[in-house]
Amino acid sequence: MTTSATPTAATDAPQDAKRVLLAAPRGYCAGVDRAVVTVEKALELYGPPVYVRKEIVHNKHVVTTLEKRGAIFVEETDEVPEGATVVFSAHGVAPIVHEEAKALSLKTIDATCPLVTKVHREAVRFADDDFDILLIGHEGHEEVVGTSGEAPEHITLVEGPDDVANVEVRDPDKVVWLSQTTLSVDETMETVRRLRDKFPRLQDPPSDDICYATQNRQLAVKQMAKDCDLMIVVGSRNSSNSVRLVEVAIEHGSRDGHLVDYADEIDEAWLDGVRTVGVTSGASVPEILVRGVLDFLAERGYGDPQPVTAAEESLLFALPKELRRDLKAAGMSDQMKHDAGALGDASQLH
User: Fold this and answer.
1) The one catalytic residue among 143, 150, 287, 313
2) What is the pTM of this model?
3) Among 60, 102, 130, 333, whose CB has the most other CB atoms within 10 angstroms?
4) Residue 33 belongs to what H/E stretch?
5) How confident is the model at residue 6 (pLDDT cuts 50, 70, 90)?
6) CA 225 → CA 45, 79, 246, 303, distances in Å?
7) Is residue 143 annotated as a catalytic residue, yes or no?
């Protein structure tokens, strides 16, 4: 569950002191936590190798760490040996992928984020009612591919506000919009506004498709950005929500902003003349990577991080039912843990 909180930031540092503003919330969301723990528990229960279709989440460090533990990441289902165990990533898959897995007699564990599953169900429901579905998202993103596969004849991809002019529908009285869960809130709302100008009877999804974690992380950055000379976002370049955080920071007043996987990717030149650095991380980033950035900044004279809190998060998702069943049969715990830990030792990163 997410509850709003009054934004807070410490302000007692000397006027000329170097400081760090640290966003809260940041890092792992409930869906990512669930997906990463799913692979960890599957390796513990079944033993390696456990195959994972696509990256379990879009983070280089997480994927590399799980590979070292015995996970094998593949691009397509037919790369998994017949009868093996395969985990579907947090981004979701199209129905045809389930059919491919069944044909190969694979043991499947579906780690799709429940918030993505919600969008899939909305797509099926509106397609069954013969609506044209305008899916706002990025072409080729795994989440978009999976959602589109639920009702390909009914779904049209809309990549952003500038794409609206090209959109055509069969019946402007039966059209609804859905979205990828990790988009920029502001850009998505602008896309919806333009779509509604073109199709006044456009229907909204039953509930907000952009996930709570994406919105909260963007909100924290918006509140920090005007006070930051530099925003450092920890996250991988194929992570949509992480990329959006850099864009949001610059749009809302940060003089500069960069995305890094590890602290050693920070260019010392970025810090020239910088008094206030903002730090946050995407929803697929373990906290250990943020700690590495904070240590890097501390070594260069930046003071203790001052929190900027935009919301409190307490949501946890249960592990996939098929994995919980097998864990219970083996007498093993199926309890979740927040931020699968750290996935390593901060002193040995990268």
Assistant:
1) 143
2) 0.91
3) 60
4) helix 30-46
5) very low
6) 44, 44, 10, 18
7) yes
